[in-house]
Amino acid sequence: MVKKDIMEEIAKANKSVIKGVDKKDIEHWATIYIMGKAYRVPADLTIMQAMEYAGYKFIRSCGCRAGFCGACSTIYRLKGDYKLQTAMACQTRVEDGMYLVQLPFSPAEKPIYDIDTVEYEENSFLKYFPEIARCVSCNTCTKACPQDLEVMDFIQAALRGDFKKVAELSFDCIQCGLCAIRCPAEIVQYNVAQFGRIMYGKYGFKENEFLEKRVTEIKEGKFDKEFKRLLSLSGNKIVDVYKKQQATKSKYLKKGGKK
Amino acid sequence: MRIGVYVCHCGGNISEVVNIDEVLNSLKNEHDVAFVKDHEHLCSKEGQEIIFNDIQEYKLDKITIAACSPQFQGPTFKTLMERAGLSPYLMEMANIREQSAWVHYDDHKKATDKAKELTKMAIAKVRYNEPLSKYSIDIGKRTLIIGAGIAGIQAALDLADSGIKVYLVEKDPSIGGHMAQLSRTFPTEDCSACILSPKMADVPENPNIELLTYGEIKDVSGYLGNFHITVNRKPTYVDAEKCTACGDCADVCPVELLNEYDGNLATRKAIYLPTKIAVPHSYVLDTEHCLGLNPLACGKCQEVCKADAINYDLYEEEIEFDVDTIIVATGFELFDAKEKPEYGFGKFKNVIDGMQMERIIVSSAEGNPLKDIGKKIAYIQCIGSRDKQIGRPYCSRICCMYAIKQANLLKKGMPDRDIYIFYIDIRAFGKGFEEYYNTAQENGVKFIRGKVAELMENPDTGKIIVKAEDTLNRQMIETEFDTVVLSVGIGPSKTTENISNMLKLARSSDGFLQEAHPKFKPVDTLVPGIFLAGTIQGPKDIPDTVSQASGSAARAIRLMNQGEYFFDPLLAFVDEEKCDGCGLCVDHCPYNAISMAGKTAEVNTAFCSGCGSCISYCPKDALDLHLYTNKQLLEQIKEAVINKGDEPRVLVFADDMTAYRLADNVGNAKGIYSPYSRIIKVPSSCRVTPKLLLQAFHYGADSVLILGTETKSSPYPHCQEEIERSVKIVHNILKENEISDKRLFNTTIVTVMIKKFSGIINTYTDLAKTLGPIPLEKREKLLKDLGKKIFGGSHE
Amino acid sequence: MSKMIDLSKEADEFLKKIEELSGEKITSCIQCGICSGSCPMINEMDLTPAQIMLMTLLGQKEELLKSKSIWICASCYTCTVRCPRELDLSKVAEALRQVKLRLSIDRIDINKMDKADLEELPPIALVSAFRKFTG
Amino acid sequence: MKIPYYPGCTLKTKAKNFERSSIAVAEMLGVELVELPKWNCCGVVHSLTSDDLIHHLAPIRNLVRVQEMNEEKLVEDEFRLVTLCSMCYNTLKRSNLRFIENYEEREKINSIMEREEDYKGNVKVVHFLEILRDIGYDKISDKIKKPLDKLKIAVYYGCNLLRPKEVGIDDPENPDILETLFESLGAEVTLFPYKKMCCGSYQTVLDKESVADLTYNILSNAKEHHAEIVVTSCPLCAFNLDNRQEIVRSKHSEFKAIPVVYFSQLMALAFGLNIEICGFDSNYISALPLLKKKGYLKNK
Do D40 and A156 touch (CB under 8 A)? Predict the structure, then answer.
């Protein structure tokens, strides 16, 4: 149990998070452990918020706070469970009995390559990332991926030079680095994947004819007027337009899906 | 019942520790005891006379002698019983010397107490002894010898010379075996054929030998004294009596074949003389390759035979006869080096095996070499020996020496030959062998320590490239040789499997036939009346083979000269009243000695080996074993444990072959162990049944030990498995009754483990002390529903 | 002066460790040398395979771990199918390599590998080599 | 007949010609090699330490895929897994044997795999050459359009098809499965004592010079026995014997290059399949001049 006055101190320490929230209104509390020390925090906070609530300040490695950038990846364990869990700290709610660390950063070696001169050949992966040959197919990377990607599969695809498969399987990679932290073969999976996507994008991906057409249209100034209109709109209006557009798109997609 | 009890002083051996008077006094009032006497030396002539006269004078039925071990003076007193007109089995001995005076001399009181109790146990047993007779079968003087190599020939001659009728069966058309192929013998370098051929010639000359060449054992039935043999004999189509071995037939024979006798280095015809020294000395016709045994097909040989010895109109005949004993001398088979393809045998013409080299040496000496072997020769040792990869982990024992011999002979023939022997270890253990090895070294033969890994053939010259590590120098050798000789090892002959099945002989893990005891019965088998001679028992050289052959002949003669073979009547028997005909025992007798006779089981005494393992399987207590009946054992158990008072009591079931003898050895060595132990002799540990074990605990034993013989040296190889099963049953019952299963322990032991024996006894005495006695209520429950506990529900 | 071998407790412990890792009863070796004679890589070796067996039996850890031979073994199993005691020497070599690799002492520095080689070599060569030469 | 097929990394990269020709040859013989829908590294080289389990995850995971294929009816009750690469064959089979025999270890592996279904130990790893043997050499002979009778062929086994004993597809000291195959294709198979000698395997990464020495010995031995072309079934042997000839030639000026190809390439040729399928253009030392000289190909 954390004493009340300490809680107040904690509350003071990070006003940005609980700004506007009265402690009385917090119904559920959770006890978490950060670097081995216990803290009592509101149960509906994300890991990142909870750590800030507990007094930690994020200067770097906190990223977008919206689940896109992959900067706030972290590891934790739950009480009574041997498994080491992985998560995005900005996207995962704290749980009672969570053992947390300071948000880790996965140091990675990234080879320098010039995409204009790199050969688009099967062995290019091994040329720049020879360590992928050390993969033992343990699948730990896949288990660690907070994006639920088939990480092992795209590393295996890289080994056999399948750029397309690497690009497709790794498309949603946010480069959080959790796979690399866990890999017993010391592979930096996300850099391998990035190489695969870039190369596939440049050499393997067949460009859409409509895209080319549209680029020409933009260059020719066909949409200049529309851009101007949108830029002049207020924030709320922009949101309305976006929502409307999304709705139409989803309708269209549904129709297309039926075909 | 009038039992005479005698206590021996053993000239002080016993009386200096055990208070004889006290023992005598304690026995006076025992039930059935006519009187108790003591004597300085009961085994002396005087002592024996006293007993003899008492039996006559006081009409004694039974005798109990408290003295030394029955292993020691038992036979003396048994003979005395017979002399006095009583069954020798109406006497029991209490072993108060080896089991009390000599092992508890540190505590005279305890020794005396134990002596009293041991004697009472003997009395308790003798009460139920029965006037059994020695069991005997008649034996005649006829022996079958299977295989007529040097072992079979030697045994046949020894037996025949001793007046025994011998049937000598040989699968080949000539006798002589492998020895007839050899050049000279190591280490003396006698000409092999020269020393062998007189012996071969003696065989058909001997009126007591019936020689059946080209014969194959088809069937063997019966047992010692009454084996019935069926032999299939192939015709050779040449009448050996008429054949003059002129060779005209072979000259005209159009079929030319490789000659196995010459290691396939020369050829022969389809009609051929097996060897120059063949006995019978006659040509034989190889039907497999002959153009047809039919004058229409060929018939050339018959046409030219001046002696009119060839007759195509012959058929395989079946011969039947009876013998009393059998000697198996089927010999060995050379390892086929083709099984190690890395040496290219059969593929590279300059890679030959040791036997081919023998033939080359013989033919060279005769001035007509079968093959040019060149000057630079390598021997590779251990081909087909000491090699787990091909399932031959054993040493063939002859290859080192024959390689050395051949090297010596080759050097003698041509001193500038360059000979290398690649070996792993040179094993020159026989008489004159090491010296002979040294001779080879002095002759300039070079020995390199390393097994050759593989051979390659130079495609242009046909020379052989040898690749090996010189393991002493740690350098690699890669050199060309003119000839490479593979020193092939030996394995049991191909017929072994068949023979072992027919005669029910065990095979050791190397495939050779198993002797009854590696040290003391090296030519006997576990089947009475069947003996082994020569390499069928394991690899050996000629002198060892000949000695073993003579040994087996002597063992067979010893048996047959008695005219009668006596056994102790250690035999299982069935109480027909109790037997319900369930047949469990029939399935579990490893000797197939029990069968169903109508509604009850019946023991075939010819097959019963007296192990007693069947008794554990009888849910009705209908099976029992003479000399060690359930009742006798139970009475001994009761006597041993009921009156223990506050003392702990360790009951030891000691098997006759090992544990009981070991206890005697401990006595001889004056090794001290706990006086709270009581030893009960059993014929084998599997005689001990779950019921007896539970009875022991029921009547008050604090711990029970079962000491038996290791499976590999036991006359009852199934025994440990059986007793382990029984022990498991009892362990479970003990646990169910919340009695520590540590109280019951089964192990095997060997007769020299004197310290271990004392150690085990002491450990279990300490355990008995620590655990304390088993409470009466628990003990009483032990015997309830015993049948159900031991046999499950099926029999209740 | 010839080298002295100390049959120490540590030597025996090293033997036990290699026996455990390899699962092979090294003390069964009869030093026949058939392994050495069969070895395709023997010309590159500083210790012969049979010598490795004997030295392991004697627990000569330092010399063994220093030797080139344990890395030269290509796991071709020629010795394995010929050893008369059915010992698997490739397992012994692997165990010796593992002693080093498990201390994170790699035989090959992947970072320093020639890019042209990496491009040329089939993946199976790299996968195999990294398996054998890195921990 | 549909059989699950495991390609392995190199069959998709440096040895595409091996895969393409084999699949085509199989098809001619009525066998469809169905690639595992999902597969990972075979786990090469077989891990030899007794306490190591992690390196066996890879092979066992691939075996689980065979179970899945059966469940998904991609193949019908077919638990054989065919490989082309000798090294994959060896690794998969050896791990398979270890975990079939050792139930406890299998359970451990299963618990580590977690996401896959348990491996039940019911898969049998076979090499394509065994499938060919089972089909029967008579049937293979029936498909011949261009008998290989103009070629003197040395067949090279290497290690992984033969050793250790329990894994080998033939007698480790005296194999003849490749000889029989090529004799049935009409070829003259030369003596080749070094056919089972190791090519140096992965040592090619660390020490190409000594691998080149072995290549020199092995190929010289083949040539001494008058071979014109060498066939193999292992992409690593193929690389060492083929590509390393460059170093051999720099060391031994007298050494004349000899083509080294996969057995399936020559089979495809004998079966009269399209020259693209044979894939002779992607061997390092081209077999095309030899094949042209012998009249197997039209001069362009």
Answer: yes
Instruction: Give the pLDDT band of residue B519 (cuts 50, 70, 90).
Output: confident
Residue type (1 letter), D168: G
Indicate which of D6, D13, D44, D48 best probes the interface with C, i.e. most C CBs within 10 Å of its own CB: D48
Q: With the CA atoms of B577, B582, B588 and B591 taken in that order, what torsion angle do they form, in degrees rounded to the nearest 10?
A: 60
What proportion of chain D, given as a percentage, has pLDDT over 70? 99
CATH 3.10.20 fits A4-100, yes or no: yes
Of A121, A127, A133, the CB nearest to C127: A133
Decide if B383 touches D, using CB distance below 8 A: no
User: Which residues does B140 contact at the CB level (< 8 Å), separation at least 6?
Assistant: B225, B324, B560
Q: What are phi and psi of B548, to 5 degrees?
A: -65, -35
Helices (H), D122-262: 128-135, 137-142, 177-184, 203-206, 208-224, 235-242, 245-251
Residue B793 has pLDDT above 60, yes or no: no
Instruction: Label residue D42 by pLDDT band (50, 70, 90).
Output: very high
Chain segment B580-633, per-residue pLDDT in tens: 999 889 989 988 899 998 889 999 887 888 999 999 999 999 999 999 999 999
Angle of CA points C69, C73, C78, to nearest 5°? 130
CATH class for the region spanning A124-204: mainly alpha
Query: C121: which chain A residues are within 8 Å (Cβ-Cβ)?
Result: 123, 126
DSSP H or E stretch at residue D27: helix D16-28
* Chain D interface includes C79 (CB < 8 A): no
- Please, do chains B and C touch (3+ CB pairs < 8 Å)? yes
Instruction: Find out whether B565 and B587 touch, Cβ atoms under 8 Å.
Output: no
d(CA C117, CA C105): 23
Tokens found for residue D233: 């079934």
CATH topology for the B235-315 domain? Alpha-Beta Plaits (3.30.70)
- Domain of residue D94 covers 2-129
Using an 8 Å CB-CB cutoff, list residues of chain C that contact chain B.
Answer: 30-38, 42, 48, 50-51, 81-86
User: Whole-angstrom Cα distance, residue D199 to residue D160?
Assistant: 11
Q: Judge if D273 and D148 occupy the same domain.
A: yes
Long-range (24+ apart) CB contacts under 8 A made by B785-788 are: B786/B691, B786/B694, B787/B619
User: Which helix (H) or strand (E) element contains residue A228?
Assistant: helix A224-232
Q: Which of C44, C75, C117 has its CB closest to that of D201?
A: C75
Rg (alpha carbons) of chain B, rounded to whole number: 33
Structure tokens at B40: 């300085």
Q: What is the mean pLDDT of residues D265-281?
A: 96
Q: What is the DSSP letter of B97?
A: I
Contacting residues of C for A161, CB less than 8 Å apart: 123
Quickly list H helices, B352-431.
354-365, 399-413
In the CATH scheme, what is the code of domain B136-233+316-331+493-561?
3.50.50.60
* Segment B726-738, tens digit of pLDDT: 999 999 999 999 9
CATH topology of B136-233+316-331+493-561 equal to that of B335-491? yes
How many distinct structural domains can be found in chain D? 2
Tokens of B446: 């070079």
Q: D32: part of which helix (H) or strand (E)?
A: strand D32-35
Question: What 3-state class would DSSP assign to B594?
Answer: strand
Q: What does the CA dihedral A213, A218, A219, A224 come to, rounded to 10 degrees?
A: 160
Taking residues D146-157, report their average pLDDT. Answer: 97
Q: Which of B549-553, B591-595, C11-15 has the lowest mean pLDDT?
A: B591-595
Q: Would you say B354 and B488 are in contact if contact means Cβ atoms under 8 Å apart?
A: yes
- Domain spanning C9-103: which superfamily? Alpha-helical ferredoxin (1.10.1060.10)
